[in-house]
Design a protein that fits this description.
The chain is an alpha+beta fold. The protein is about 50% helix and about 10% strand. The strands form 2 sheets. A 5-stranded antiparallel beta sheet has the order 2-3-9-6-7, with no helix packed on it. Strands 1-4-5-8 form a 4-stranded mixed beta sheet, with no helix packed on it. The longest helix is centred in the first third of the chain and has 31 residues.
């Protein structure tokens, strides 16, 4: 017989394949067994995810108390209500700014810490805020942004830098006694005498408005200036003493001197001479001051610089974003550092050999190689900031909370924060879901591509 016949007989001798009795998966597990094991997870998924989503969609079509069907009216309210429009605008700012800042900082930290010995310790310090809850971080930054420099760290730093370059006012609450003083308000917070001065007649510049025990330092008793024929002299003092008594407009025993007050002699709108009161309150101007009027500039009485209104309507959103960056920069740094560890170093060295400097290597080689990781971090953070609630609710004070409003906070306020409108709240929740879904799909698609590689 030919070889073909033997081959055919050999094939015919193969045992027949038995028909499958039941459907099995590639892991040779019966389908009903797999479903049985997945059933608890499917039940939890349906109860905690599918049902709430479905109920929110249904509830968003009804009015505040759920008794009347209103269709898409609640969705129309979202884009016509001023508070909700502010929330939409602020949410867009969050999505555009916060993830980008966190990703850039994480990239910088990850690259720089590779070149230092203490990089691990630095990464640990930067990552530590992730161990703090949003509530605790909100309380911390509410104190950091406190307006009073004695309590708020941010304003303590700002005022210290400001005062290092700008002289602070000496007596911010002082003012002349209108009944006995010749000083009158002359604009800009300054006070000017109504009559001209001349040598030989000491000028009296009494001030009130400060308690003697509130004067800075250890003030001395005021002294009446001695007359001089070749100069204009005078006294600046606090025309008040504890316990009362004495003559108004006259330097009495026990009344305190105001040291360091700037006095200007003004003629024709120009300053011809100036002096500063001494420890006993007296001052002396040259003869050029003859016939001039005396002016106490507003810098003597300006209110002290109290820093920046971090939580005011203008800066409240950037301030809260800064606290978010502080918390999440460590998260981005760790993920990017993990991606950086997998970068082929030969490519970096080849770029350096070809003459590229460190900035060119970073921009043209490192960043493109890290692009998949950077996109995952960026999209993850965008999903996260879309749901931001805790930081805004805790940090923003009540007067400026409306200016810092975001969608998640508006959802809470509409439903549970006094609004009592569960229809609008549900509509905002559905809107948030629709905004998050595209970013979730991008993230899942990216993860699948990475898995296929």
């Amino acid at each position: 017989m030919s070889s073909v016949t033997k081959t055919a007989e050999g094939i015919g001798a193969l045992p027949p394949v038995p028909a499958a009795k039941s459907r099995k998966s590639v892991t040779r597990t019966r389908l009903w067994v797999a479903v049985l094991f997945l059933l608890p997870a499917l039940v939890l998924l349906g109860a905690l995810v599918v049902y709430p989503i479905g109920y929110s969609v249904w509830r968003s079509l009804y009015d505040a108390d759920g008794s009347g069907f209103v269709g898409l009216e609640n969705y129309g309210d979202i884009f016509t209500n001023d508070a909700t429009l502010t929330a939409v605008r602020n949410t867009a700012i969050w999505v555009a700014v916060a993830p980008a800042l966190v990703t850039v900082l994480g990239l910088i930290f990850a690259v720089l810490t590779e070149r230092v010995r203490w990089g691990t310790a630095f990464k640990l310090i930067v990552f530590m805020p992730m161990a703090i809850s949003m509530l605790a971080a909100g309380i911390i930054f509410r104190l950091v942004y406190e307006q009073d420099p004695d309590q708020g760290v941010a304003n303590a730093v700002v005022t210290s830098v400001h005062d290092a370059f700008t002289d602070s006012s000496v007596y911010p609450k002082a003012r002349p006694n209108a009944q006995v003083s010749d000083l009158k308000a002359s604009g800009g917070g300054s006070f000017t005498t109504a009559s001209a001065v001349q040598p030989g007649t000491p000028a009296l510049l009494p001030l009130v408005g400060i308690a003697p025990n509130r004067l800075p330092g250890d003030p001395r008793d005021a002294k009446a200036a001695a007359p001089a024929e070749d100069a204009v002299t005078g006294t600046v003092w606090l025309d008040f003493k504890l316990g009362g008594g004495g003559e108004k407009g006259a330097v009495d025993a026990g009344e305190k001197a105001l040291e360091g007050v700037q006095v200007e002699a003004v003629k024709g709108g120009e300053v011809v001479a100036s002096a500063t009161s001494g420890a006993d309150g007296t001052f002396r101007l040259p003869r050029e001051a003859d016939g001039a009027r005396l002016r106490l500039p507003g810098s003597n009485f300006a209110a002290p610089y109290n820093g920046v209104d971090w939580l005011g309507p203008t800066l409240v959103t950037p301030s809260i974003i800064a606290s978010y960056v502080w918390m999440w920069a460590g998260f981005a740094m760790v993920l990017i550092a993990a991606g950086l560890a997998g970068v082929d170093r030969n490519l970096l060295e080849a770029a350096r050999v070809d003459g590229a400097n460190e900035w060119q290597v970073f921009r043209r080689v490192t960043v493109p190689l890290l692009a998949p990781v950077l996109i995952v971090v960026l999209v993850t953070l965008m999903i996260n900031v879309m749901k931001i609630f805790d930081l805004v609710y805790i940090i923003a004070p009540q007067p400026s909370q409306d200016d810092a409003n975001v969608l998640a906070l508006q959802l809470f306020l509409s439903s549970f924060g006094g609004g009592g409108n569960y229809g609008v709240g549900s509509a905002i929740g559905v809107l948030l879901l629709l905004l998050v879904l595209p970013m979730m799909f991008v993230n899942i698609r990216r993860l699948r591509k990475e898995r296929e590689r």
